[in-house]
Amino acid sequence: MEYREIYVPLDNSPYSNTAGLIAVDIARKYHCRVFGSHVFSVGFCDQRFQKFDCDSVSSGSGVDKVKVPAESELALINREISRITDTYFSVLSEYCKKERVQFEAVSLQGEIWKSLVEDIESKGCDLVVMGGFGSGKKTDSILGSVASRLARNLRRDILMVRNARLEHHNSQIVVGLDGSEFSWGCFKRALELAEIFDKELIVLGVEDPNYHFSILNSINRVFDMKRDPFGILEHELVYDESTTHGLAEVFNDLFSTAKREARMQNRAIKTVLMRGRAWNCILDYVRDNPVWMLILGRTGFHNQGDGEIGSTAESLIYQTPCNLLLSVAVFHPKQDFKNHRVRWDKSAKRKLSLVHHSLQGLSLNAVHQLAFQRDLKVITDDVFDEAVRAILLPRFLKLMGFDPDTLLG
Asked: Are strands 33-40 and 5-9 parallel, antiparallel or unpaired?
């Protein structure tokens, strides 16, 4: 999980200067190299060329052409660009030297965000630390255009500095946890960064009742029920009870695993469980608490595998008031029951295949935990039923027409 190469786009704004300081602190921990880069845009270079008195000639079509500047003029332009570049790099270079961190300056020309993406990928950097805004920030800006494009187009960790000051009095690093391998990767990153910057680590989980409305339909498919739908009032009551109970149990398990992982690194964490839309709850928390950095997976549990940024991350990059790290790291916490070898019979496999994709991980974990506890070698129909029943309320089973003691009667 260690970073090897850190990339810092520079534009001499307070945001990029702060990004440089944060990058060096991280680089010192991992003994890695820091690249500081500045891109001269095509438009900027064109303006510099036009300042010289170049002779104009008319083409046959009547369109004026500008001659290429003389060699001496090109040398003068290059010296000017070099002088400006040195100014941009001076602060970060000196800080790297002070902290004994290897530094390399990179000067680029072209369209800013495209040049950065190409250079970052060619160098294989695994962390980008940049200002969330540039030197052209306006009062009502919500995110700089370059930061926005890099967040969408880079498949690497990217830390966007949205506070121009380090604000040491903001004492919390918050990480979102949804049980996916991406959120566990974020959790591992958060443990490391909380140690580097001496921050309190908050693990935040959010139950989304709107999304998990699919629970009722998926359970119907699992047990091959061919019954009439519930009455609307009973439907709503059972849904509310079952999601409150079931999801709370899921997050209790996630939080227990997170605390165990933290203890292995001699770290203490605090857990917070909220209910509502994920991005809304996270935004409410970071606005109401002294949060210095929010860490999220670039995508989460509902990743479609297309490489696109997730909806929660996309909403928060534009609205969160604190520094934001979007991570692509993945991690699988050690769970002994997953190493327990079992064989599934055909009927149990069929029932698992009918589970909604959002619930298959939960069902699979419940079955394997039960098999591990009882040292079972074969997952049968009955084992599957018992494991799934354990995560549902008895009232829910009764309304489906099942005897909670026997499940299938």
From this structure: parallel
